[in-house]
Design brief:
299 residues; alpha/beta; Rossmann fold; N-(1-d-carboxylethyl)-l-norvaline Dehydrogenase, domain 2; 2 domains; eight-stranded mixed sheet; 8 strands; binds 3-hydroxybutanoyl-coenzyme A
Length: 299
């Protein structure tokens, strides 16, 4: 590699490899993560289970990039370059050249564990493997891996292209070198790494989910209507969205899964999903993505 191409912020091991990362899971979060890496010039291998899931992911990516163009944070030429740097694949062999592999599949322990093991089996042995879990303890997800020194959590926020922080969750086994490499990569993304320890729900969701859940209980109790509850948070706390609007935005199934996972870890009743949240999820009212949650959305 020529002198001017050296990346002094990376460890020597990763410096010998191309600016390529892999994202496993072309869902909402995986696509957001893909977009931000493409936007700063990385080649991205996006791995999906099937042609259909990758096609759906591509549609999402193009919609999201369209929003960025509309907002002026991206132009057509840059967008074309980004799409040329994207490689879609359903073959794990294609992740072998990546310096960082980010797992962004469903928030389910068994699925994530399988994907992570598969990723480790096909990755370069100097690559860092990260999970975008929003609540499952890192040490548990890392249990099936051979090299836990290069494994950590990178919890991105939704919408990924807009939100600045990334929770960097480390276990006792994560090496200083891996932490430093990932911090520097995050820096290049223009995002802010926040180091957090491996506690259930990390920081974001242990604070956010009881807040959202309490707003749902207030609605259930008839303390105010949904608009009233959201208005209090927007005008009274200066939040861009009220808690019910935000729950719809995140996905009611995602909120419930996160709460179930934190409750399972802590046994603390404040993390039990409210009856109304559980009922809406059962009825398939998942928020924006299904067209109805606390509010109704035009498809
Ligand atoms: N690339 C792609 N999309 C972009 C974009 C970009 N560079 N810039 C903006 N957008 C999108 C926005 O996401 C929004 O999408 P939408 O139509 O689907 O809502 C649309 O373009 C319009 O964006 P604007 O900035 O013009 O609109 P707003 O001023 O209404 O802001 C918002 C939208 C950024 C979503 C704002 O309402 C907000 O900040 N809401 C709170 C989000 C939040 O709290 N996120 C954290 C959730 S918690 C979490 O993620 C953890 C997880 O584990 C649950």
């Amino acid at each position: 590699m020529a002198e001017e191409e050296q990346r002094p912020w990376l460890s020597a091991e990763l410096n010998n490899m191309a600016d390529e990362i892999s994202v496993i899971g072309p869902g909402h979060m995986g696509i957001g993560i893909t977009q931000v890496f493409l936007q700063v010039g990385y080649n991205v291998v996006l791995v999906g289970r099937s042609r259909e899931s990758l096609d759906k992911g591509m549609e999402r990516l193009k919609t999201s990039m369209g929003k960025a163009i509309k907002k002026g944070s991206l132009n057509e030429k840059e967008a074309e370059k980004m799409l040329n740097a994207l490689h879609l694949s359903s073959d794990y062999h294609d992740i072998a050249g990546s310096i960082l592999i980010i797992e962004a599949v469903s928030e389910n322990f068994d699925i994530k564990t399988d994907v992570l093991k598969n990723a480790e089996a096909h990755a370069n042995n100097t690559a860092i493997i990260a999970t975008n879990t929003s609540s499952i303890p890192i040490h548990k997800l890392g249990n099936g891996l051979k090299n836990r020194e290069r494994f950590l959590g990178m919890h991105f926020f939704n919408p990924v292209p807009v939100m600045k922080p990334i929770e960097l969750i480390i276990s006792k086994e994560t090496s200083e070198q891996a932490i430093s490499d990932v911090k520097n990569i995050i820096d290049k993304l223009g995002k802010t790494p926040v180091m957090v320890n491996d506690y259930p729900g990390f920081i974001a969701n242990r604070i956010l989910m009881p807040f959202i859940n309490e707003a749902i209980i207030a609605l259930e109790n008839g303390a105010a209507d949904k608009e009233g509850i959201d208005t209090i948070a927007k005008l009274g706390f200066n939040h861009p969205m009220g808690p019910l609007e935000l729950a719809d935005f995140i996905g009611l199934d995602v909120c419930k899964d996160i709460m179930d996972s934190i409750y399972m870890e802590t046994g603390n009743a404040k993390f039990i999903p409210s009856e109304l949240l559980s009922r809406l999820v059962k009825e398939g009212k998942l928020g924006r993505k299904s067209g109805e949650g606390f509010y109704i959305y035009k498809k």
